[in-house]
Amino acid sequence: MPNIFQTVPLIHFVYLSALLFCIGVVGVLIRRNAIIIFMSIELMLNSVNLLLVAFSAYRQDPPGQIFVFFIMAVAAAEVAVGLAIIIMIYRNIRTVDINELSRLKG
Amino acid sequence: MLTSAFYFIAFVTVFFAVMVIAAKNPVHSVLYLVLTFFGISANYIFILDAPFVGIVNIIVYAGAIMVLFLFVIMLMNLNAEAEHRKSNAFLIVGAFAGGSLLLIVVDAIRKVDWKSVSGQESSGGAIGSIKVLGKVLYTDYILPFEVASVLFLVAIVGAVILARKEKLPLTVGQISHPVSES
């Protein structure tokens, strides 16, 4: 393991990651702009990436960082499709406010 | 030195992450998120000794994905702060739910027996270097790598189909007899 783990315990990386994840969750809950909700989801993905890299460095295990690489690839594809959906919604109802999207309830 | 750097980077990252969800203007939110990603990348590169993931994080997230967000926001002219704020009750309930989740997760983390998670001594070579990761990626993980390329192809086609302007649907007659109407 790198020297950093002799002074900063692994658990602090876990706490940092959990904190970032919860900030993302709060962002999803309290914002109404669909794009900002989307960015909060990206924040949550990144917090998980941080956790994977921390454990990978701690265990000296390369596959953890390969997983991060694949998570980034999937996130990039997800962002492309998600933003396309948001653009389509904006064209149809002229807003990205998620409260306006509840009309499927009837 | 590295220890205080970690706590400084962690503090800055969390601060910018809070600003992402607190900023009223969506463009400011995007810029704060870029700074958050820079903080996380600094964590990768300087603290965790994983330069490859850190550089890819900057290029893909801070470079490509956030530019995509900025494009969409500016294309739709959303930076005029059109968002109606949710009522205060909503804010309090959301923050309370998030705080409860954090408490539960922290409690679960504290209950883990961290002594059983043994660290591995460094075997000389840097684990996060491009050489090591490339070898693993192109031998053990070659199938997921190829599947990811198919995923990108599907994502490109899906994004183009979803986001293009709707035209009048072509009927079979229009395609097979284009000159018959003139």
| CATH architecture grouping of chain A | Orthogonal Bundle
What is the fold-level CATH name, i.e. the topology of the domain at 1-78 in chain B? Four Helix Bundle (Hemerythrin (Met), subunit A)
Rough outline of chain A? elongated
Question: What structural class do the secondary elements of chain B suggest?
Answer: mainly alpha
* Fold-level CATH name of chain A: Helix Hairpins
Order of helices and strands of chain A: HHHH
Q: Would you report the number of β strands of chain B?
A: 0
Residue fraction in strands of chain A: under 5%
Largest sheet of chain A, if any? none
Write the layout of secondary structure elements.
The complex is a heterodimer of chains A (106) and B (182).
Chain A: H1 4-7, H2 10-30, H3 34-59, H4 63-93
Helix pairs in contact in A: 2-3, 3-4
Chain B: H1 2-22, H2 26-47, H3 51-75, H4 88-111, H5 130-139, H6 142-163, H7 172-176
